[in-house]
Write a structure and sequence with these properties.
alpha/beta, about 10% strand, globular
Length: about 400
Amino acid sequence: MTISREGIDPPLWLLAEVTYRCPLHCVFCYNPVDYAKQHKELTTDEWLSVLNQGREMGAAQLGLSGGEPLLRDDLEVIVEEGRKLGYYINLITSGIGLSETRIKDLKEAGVDHIQLSFQDSTREMNDFLSSTKTFDLKNKVARLIKKYEYPMVLNCVLHKLNIDHIEEILSMAESMGAEYVELANTQFYSWASLNKKQLMPTKTQLEKAEFVTQKFRDRLGNKMKIYFVMPDYYSTRPKKCMNGWGNVFVTVQADGTVLPCHVASMLPNIEFENIKSTSLESIWYDSSSFNLFRGDSWMKEPCKTCPEKEKDLGGCRCQAYMLAGDPTLADPVCDKSPHHHIVKQVVKDAENFLPEEKPIIFRTDSESRRLITEKNAGSLDIEESRLFEDNVVASSDKSRVGSI
């Protein structure tokens, strides 16, 4: 079937997930749970080709993420090519591996913007949540970012275990001279979904956090811009996920698989094409995967006749699949969804959950391989099993992720 390109705008934002290797083991990581599957990372030349194809199509923003992108020895080469092509380049990093020599080289290569992640304001919680001793290293990197005159952009993912420290987190950001702070409440995909019970904040925690955040906004004004991103589960209307499926954002995974969002690979019965065999232009405009949820012809009730459908385009397809088992259904966050009771129950359970009820799962290569094995053996519950690609095979123990 021939798909018309009429009315399809080019992508504006290209996210390059250059590796899934990472020195951290964050409990809320958005990388696929099955990232330790058998796959081979794109080569330098293949990434340069991706950048050229994206720019030719009209993409202007380039995000370099992972895993930890600094683990790529060729990152400076990729950045330099992006600069030559005219991208605005955003490095999304834990900071681990960003020495003074490296930040100087990346500055010369053309990085415009560095987003540095912290897990908490305290060494103890920061290091626990990432299962590493990295708090002091992150503080050193924050000073380097200021020294090399980048805007200080600090990101902290919020959840039950750290949201009560929000005043301390914002005070830390202020003392570092941060110009922008993103307080991103955990969205429950991938590893965060596995740890949902442990990480879901209570309503009281959220209300207090919003109050403290507003006090800082009132005091600091534009000196430090603070973005507070609410968790979906406390909304009654879904977000316009990725500004619409295949509308603005395109993600290229470490192995070259091209997605309309960074977690879409979990969706069943959809063949996402790979940049190694198909051009980015063809995938964006012509592939069945990118056209599957464009527009509203795919919608079922209550979305199909909803007067608000243009505001949210039915919400998140991945969330609909994870919670309701069908990506064509309304996002259960919406209180018009017949599955909204699932979301309400999760929120209710957050009030009474005791941490000792279930051990927290850290994002590690061995855990990813274990979970792949258990999924293939049918040992996981239904919601957990929905986090995996079809027919995925674990890489061998102790092999380097992305090498086979």
